[in-house]
Specification:
The protein is of the alpha+beta class. Helices cover 40% and strands 24% of the residues. The radius of gyration is 19 Å and the shape is globular.
């Protein structure tokens, strides 16, 4: 018999998830904090074959949102995976202003896996501290996928870390001289073997946008490591 199963999900549509769960007829409890969801599924009243089929259907539908199968936070899951894989992580931040590094280092055991955090807020800092070429900064703007990628490359170039995250965006309350919308951001994650950049458009206050950027960056890092997309 499949026991009670616990899942942590991020970025899922809560209304659609509730509809799916009610239709599945599997007893459940669901709670959330922002875009972070805790789900418990109780299969004790179902026979094993039915329970197995419903579990497989849930995983197939929501695997891109499930980041853990226990009640842990994103930052705890990130530290856990990095520790198991004996990897070192570095972070380069712009609009998140050090908040991502703070989240990671607040977890016990982070000292074993966290190498450094760089707040490269200005274009000159991105160039001088991370080696982002001025040509790329000028041609694509500091808030761009190209700059997010170069920020990751800059962290990895020293050879002391093998996994990196970058954030660059516009938290508001007003846009800069680019005219790009408030809430636009790019999050880069990568290793020496691969770099992927994710584009997002968040809404809310400056504080809410920054918080969403931090949590979303943690999520992308966890999922990249869980899926084994990066050699670390």
């Amino acid at each position: 018999m499949i026991p009670l199963k616990t899942f942590k999900l991020f970025g899922v549509n809560g209304v659609e998830l509730e509809k799916y769960l009610r239709k599945s007829e599997v007893p459940y409890t669901l709670s959330s904090s922002g875009n972070d969801y805790l789900l418990n599924l109780d299969f004790s009243t179902l026979n094993e074959s039915v329970a197995d089929g419903k579990l497989k259907d849930f995983i197939s539908k929501y695997k891109s949102h499930v980041y853990a199968e226990s009640n842990v936070t994103l930052k705890q899951q990130l530290i856990k995976i990095l520790t198991v894989r004996k990897a070192k992580i570095s972070v380069a931040e712009s609009f998140t202003g050090g908040g991502l590094s703070s989240e990671i280092t607040s977890v016990s055991g982070a000292s074993k896996v966290f190498y450094e955090g760089v707040v490269a807020y200005s274009p000159d800092s991105k160039h001088n501290r991370l080696g982002v070429p001025y040509e790329i900064l000028d041609n694509f703007h500091p808030v761009s996928s190209q700059v997010a990628s170069e920020m990751v490359k800059g962290l990895l170039s020293g050879g002391d870390t093998n996994f990196a995250i970058s954030t660059t965006g516009i938290a508001g309350p007003k846009s800069d001289d680019s005219g790009f919308p408030v809430g636009l951001c790019y999050i880069g994650v990568g290793s020496p073997s691969k770099i992927t950049v994710y584009k997002h458009k968040f809404s809310g206050t400056r504080e809410e946008i920054t918080h969403l950027g931090i949590q979303t960056a943690l999520f992308h890092a966890v999922m990249a490591l869980r899926k084994g997309d990066f050699d670390v």
